[in-house]
Design brief:
Structural class: alpha+beta
Radius of gyration: 16 Å
Distance between the termini: 21 Å
Order of helices and strands: HEEEEEEEEEHEEHE
Strand content: 35-45%
Number of domains: 1
Helix content: 10-25%
Length: 181
């Protein structure tokens, strides 16, 4: 878990080989934020599940974020809000959208009362889990499978309300980022 934030944010920006994606930044019809809201800004770390120690560092600023491994001196990754990295807010959730090819991949942030953040995605994971999630989504949405080289996208197009329902029903899971400053 040493590199969890670096891996997490690289996956957020680059995506995994299989992703649930969207034809436009989500939620559709909501305007993008010009900067990261003050309540999300700060220094965050992930607690190592085995050792209990605080690990990698994520700093969220008005313009975007930067992250580094706890053992590294240099920042390993960063992202600035742009036309390919879009932040939106709707019903107490923050939606981090990043564009790859003609797909939008989504991560959802939920701020807890103590300032910690839940950072979530639809985790397709292993093949058995992938088939089950796609089967469930296919009952509610038209799912368009699109392949680009070795990557597979399962594109859905929910309404704002359907997207929030997916979050509340547990389709989105993830990790807790602990606010340290």
């Amino acid at each position: 878990m040493k590199n969890i934030i670096v891996v997490l944010f690289w996956s957020a920006l680059l995506y995994s080989c299989k992703e649930v994606s969207f034809p436009q930044a989500q939620p559709a019809g909501i305007s993008a934020l010009k900067e990261v809201p003050a309540e999300l800004r700060g220094v965050y770390q992930v607690r190592d599940r085995k050792t209990g120690e605080l690990g990698d560092t994520l700093i969220i600023e008005a313009w975007g974020y930067r992250a580094k491994d706890k053992d590294q001196k240099d920042w390993l990754t960063n992202g600035s809000l742009s036309d390919t990295l879009v932040l939106k807010t709707y019903q107490n959730y923050y939606f981090v959208n990043f564009k790859t090819n003609n797909q939008w991949v989504l991560r959802v942030i939920q701020r807890e009362a103590n300032g910690n953040l839940l950072f979530m995605s639809i985790d397709i994971g292993e093949e058995k889990k992938e088939k089950e999630i796609i089967r469930k989504l296919s009952k509610r949405f038209s799912v368009k499978e699109q392949k680009y080289k070795s990557d597979t996208f399962y594109q859905i197009n929910p309404t704002q309300e359907e997207l929030v329902a997916l979050i509340k029903e547990g389709y989105f899971t993830g990790i807790r980022l602990l606010k340290v400053k």
